[in-house]
Amino acid sequence: MNQSVLIQAIIYLASGVLFVPIAKRLGLGSVLGYLLAGVAIGPAVLGLVGDEGQDIMHFAEFGVIIMLFLVGLELEPERLWKLRVPVLGLGGLQVLLTALLTGGLALVAGLPWQPALALGMILSMSSTAIVLQTLNEKGLMQTAAGQNTFAVLLFQDIAVIPILAIMPLLATYPVAESTDHHAHFSLTDGLPGWLRPFVVVGAVLGLVLIGRYVMGTVFRIIARTGLREVFIATALLMVASIAVLMEMVGLSPALGAFVAGVVLANSEYKHELESDIDPFKGLLLGLFFISVGAAINFDLIRENPLLVIGLVVGIMAVKGLVLGLLGKVFGLQTDQNLLFALGLCQVGEFAFVLFSFASQNGILAQEVVDLMTAVVAISMGVTPLVFLANEKLLLPRLGTKEKASKEQDHIEEHNAVIVAGFGRYGNIVGRFLRANNIGATVLDFDSDRVDTLRKLGMKVYYGDASRYDLLKSAGADKARLMIIALDSPEKVLELVETAKKHFPNLKLLVRAADREDAYELLDAGITHVYRETLDSSLRMGVDAMTLLGFRAYQSQRAARLFRKHDEQNMAELAAVRHDRKQYFSSARQRIRDLEELLSSDTNDRWLKDVEDGWDPESLRNEVRQMKP
Amino acid sequence: MASVLILFAHPALEKSRTNRILMGACQSVASVTSVTINDLYQEYPDFDIDVDREQQLLLDHEYIILHHPFYWYSSPAMVKQWEDLVLEHGWAYGREGNALVGKKIFNVITTGGPQRAYDEAGLNRFTVRQFLAPFDQTAHLCKMIYLPPFVVHGTHRLTEEEMHQYARQYKSLLTLLTTDQLDVEDARNRQYLNELLVD
Prior knowledge:
- The structure holds two protein chains of two kinds.
- Chain A is mainly alpha-helical.
- Helices cover 69% and strands 4% of the residues of chain A.
- Chain B has one domain: Flavodoxin domain (Rossmann fold), CATH 3.40.50.360.
- In chain B, 38% of the residues lie in helices and 15% in strands.
- Chain B is globular.
- The two termini of chain B are 24 Å apart.
- The mean pLDDT of chain B is 94.
- The A-B interface holds A 557, 560-561, 605-606, 609-610, 612-614, 618-619, 622 and B 46, 48-52, 84-90, 94-95.
């Protein structure tokens, strides 16, 4: 048993590892790679996986749920509110018009009105998984097309709920005796009808309240243990629990996860959650795409090639036309509209769920369901090709390149500055920048401090700043500077290494605890090194000189001279210090130099010059030599 | 090809529309010709002028431009600090001070007042040239040739288009210098260098 699970895993992983890089190389995108991998191991080609493909798809749908959670996490409530017009208007009209039109065509094709309507509603769904993944991969999420696409997909997710509610009313066949293998415990089954809406609303409300007021504390406690895997486990546990809870009250688990994501979007653990869960999303989505590929029933295509192909093309054309028309009405530019309409014209994974629901409830005949399942799978399979054709064939002809035109009111969390470590040092830098209206994304690994700062209304995120994924989600690829003020010198060096490797454009300003620390940083190639005690001790020295009766300007210039000298000397010593002996002799030499420099103003040309300009000595001499 | 050094001094460039536009013009010229821009407030925010560096820059260039706003009928403090420290006795002036002999120097200034205000009968009672006498004499003592200033008048009321027109003039002035087309003797007799420039 164990072994067969492992062998299964090997088959899926190997196919993905083999096909995805090839597809990526060929410019086809990872989604198509996974789908091809699925086709290859599926019954049509190698036959390595068979019926269990359906179960795996069901399991892998958890990837879609995680994806929606992550999407929610990216979407703060204020931004969601701004999307209300596209979600309700564009999304609502798309589902309504597509359902009526495809349903109408089914009616013309000879289906009774009930199954026709059910079919129409099912076919109005698009594939959240494929479309969002593809848009993310191509970096098009922030374009007008991307935002509207997302709005439509969001509405479709919401629409699943009323669709599931209406469907049983459309039953025309006798209901099969509980054929549902995935029958799960339901909270609402035993309740009288009028009570159900309350349970549903209660569950969502509970979700929001728990997310808002309890999860922060839970994550904080877990974070304090410092065990990353437990944090990841907690995050996955939360998403899984939400999914189950939502299913129990008859809501879409993906929608529930999305809501939870939105609730946590303002939380300090946002970036940490994102980077921790993201790999799971990727793997499960990959698995999901593979199982879609494996589920494509090539026998059915072979028997009825014209019918299947005709249906795929027809449905995608109808959906695409409705979308294109709506895109036009909602003011999308032609290039954006093409991306929007062609991107969403497939039928999505929700259809699989709805089809099985429809056949169990006696709404659609099994033949219709089998045929349509194949059609849906093919339409999903060709989606990456449609994207590709749009990108390579249609858009170049249009003349306008799809550019990432940022939505004007879209709030970007990408600041020019990242402050890593907000302790006694970093907080001063951060406050100073803030006072000058320079936005900074703050990362800190002390959960108590993060908590306090958040209460003060600051945007601070919890996490280990030396990790690549966290830096990435904090926007390190778009930021210009990073202030590194972590307490642990080892962590600082680790972070410097990561940043230099992955984000070479990021300028690094690094705080060093002492000289020894500064040498390490100079060795690591950092040019902006700040010893934390240097400036304040020099300021104290200036005050001391002034109190002793030196002119204030003179003391201050002396201090600046001292600092300049000291930094030059440090850079030189950093280069030679590996040779211990040389270090000592050289250091002694330097100290002697410095003493000389400060005691007489003849040693350093820089100091001498300054004195010269203000020193009338040489002029006096010349004048005295002249005859009166 | 003559080389030009622009000593630019503005303590709050972020607040000066005119000077931002003028500097933009300089930068576009500097990127392709022998014009060097030395942004003094950017280089020495703490007023600790690197005398060696400044003297070397002077030696390396034929024309020296002091580009600054006309604060209190003179320059911002940095220019004064620069003169005090860089133009050393025995180097720039005095019996042995011959480092700058024959170099040409002039001011590029921006001022809020219109030209008619700088007149015996006007609000400011003296002409710009009269106010610039200390620069004139400093150049003279350093055995340099002092040229008339290039002046942008009435900056408070300039429209965007007028500023760009001044910027174009400034650019063509720099081109005149770098391509050795400036008739120094003719220029010396003018009130402003602006007169030599059309557009």
